[in-house]
């Protein structure tokens, strides 16, 4: 594996810092990761590798608590090429789903999934989709020791893993699937089959979607702020090849009927990977869920959390959680 890429993978913070410094020099708005009225604290979870039970891994991330004693927690899982920082990207500019949910009365836990950022893995082939689902399950069980109610949510590949966890283990109270369903666009399928899979077969980590410019083109629309696109592009992680090779068949296709909790399916109208037009078909796959709520984010692309309309979409997620008896808020 190329040493330069491995170094990038394990030192994302320096890349982000350089990108933000460059933006500040250009007079563009920059926010500190710990800004805002809510305190962000480190979070670490020890999990057992399902394929090597004697091996323990550490999953690192952060936690944001509301200004009251929360009884509900939301575990957030990022997508390919992202990390936990995607959920607290720029609080001062409103780009923080972690703080939006905490402001609504929920503790939020966001992790760097294994093979990303602060949760490094030497062999990217070991970070498969089923391993991620197992680790999410183990973290959910640990959260159950502190909270009466646990919701799981993810964006893109993080949604796939969230659906797997909910369908396999039936231990969460609500599921939030963001920017993902089982009907990817033809354009994305071609990209994935001709680019990502061959790269994953050659090396244990690969750059999702091939190049920074193509990644930005697929993830964003013109409605996103240019400085956001630039900072996000500079901060992209390499993706473990094990995840690329095992997500291909989208195993949640089989598990979605086993999800027995309320589901929020949120998609962007300009998503080039998972078009919002297929939302009704995606919703229909959750045949045993007591309710499936569809929400469309207008004027946004795949990474809609970081588009101008993204903060309002985060508020709708918070409103959905607050409206459910399964996930009570600690705020009146």
From TrEMBL:
Where is each AB hydrolase-1 domain found?
74-307
Q: What is this protein called?
A: AB hydrolase-1 domain-containing protein
Check the record and name the Gene3D superfamilies matching this protein: alpha/beta hydrolase
Source organism per UniProt: Sorangium cellulosum (Polyangium cellulosum)
Q: List the coiled-coil residues.
A: none
Q: Which residues are the signal sequence here? A: 1-33
Keyword set for this entry?
A: Signal
Q: Does the keyword Signal apply?
A: yes
Q: Name one GO cellular component term.
A: membrane
Could you tell me which Pfam families the record lists for this protein?
Abhydrolase_6
């Amino acid at each position: 594996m190329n040493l330069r890429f491995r170094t990038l993978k394990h030192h994302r913070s320096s890349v982000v810092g350089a990108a933000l410094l460059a933006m500040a020099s250009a007079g563009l708005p920059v926010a500190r990761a710990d800004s805002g009225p809510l305190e962000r604290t480190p979070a670490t979870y020890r999990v057992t590798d399902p394929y090597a039970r004697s091996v323990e891994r550490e999953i690192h991330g952060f936690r944001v608590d509301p200004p009251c004693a929360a009884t509900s927690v939301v575990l957030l899982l990022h997508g390919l090429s992202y990390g936990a920082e995607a959920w607290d990207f720029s609080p001062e500019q409103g780009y923080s789903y972690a703080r939006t949910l905490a402001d609504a009365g929920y503790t939020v836990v966001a992790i760097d999934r294994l093979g990303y950022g602060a949760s490094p893995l030497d062999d990217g082939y070991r970070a498969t989709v089923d391993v991620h689902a197992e680790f999410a399950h183990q973290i959910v069980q640990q959260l159950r020791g502190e909270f009466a109610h646990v919701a799981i949510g993810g964006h893109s590949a993080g949604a796939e893993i969230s659906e797997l966890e909910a369908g396999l283990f039936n231990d969460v109270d609500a599921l939030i699937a963001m920017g993902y369903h089982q009907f990817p666009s033809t354009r994305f399928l071609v990209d994935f089959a001709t680019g990502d899979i061959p790269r994953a077969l050659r090396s244990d980590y690969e750059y999702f979607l091939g190049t920074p410019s193509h990644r930005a083109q697929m993830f964003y629309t013109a409605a996103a702020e240019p400085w956001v696109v630039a900072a996000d592009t500079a901060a992209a992680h390499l993706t473990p090849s094990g995840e690329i090779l095992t997500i291909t068949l989208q195993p949640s296709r089989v598990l979605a009927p086993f999800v027995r909790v309320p589901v929020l399916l949120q998609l962007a109208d300009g998503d080039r990977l998972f078009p919002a037009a297929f939302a009704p078909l995606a919703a229909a796959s959750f045949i045993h869920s007591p309710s499936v709520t569809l929400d469309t984010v207008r004027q946004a692309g795949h990474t809609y959390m970081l588009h101008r309309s993204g903060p309002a979409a985060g508020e709708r997620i918070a409103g959905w959680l607050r409206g459910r008896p399964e996930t009570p808020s600690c705020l009146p």
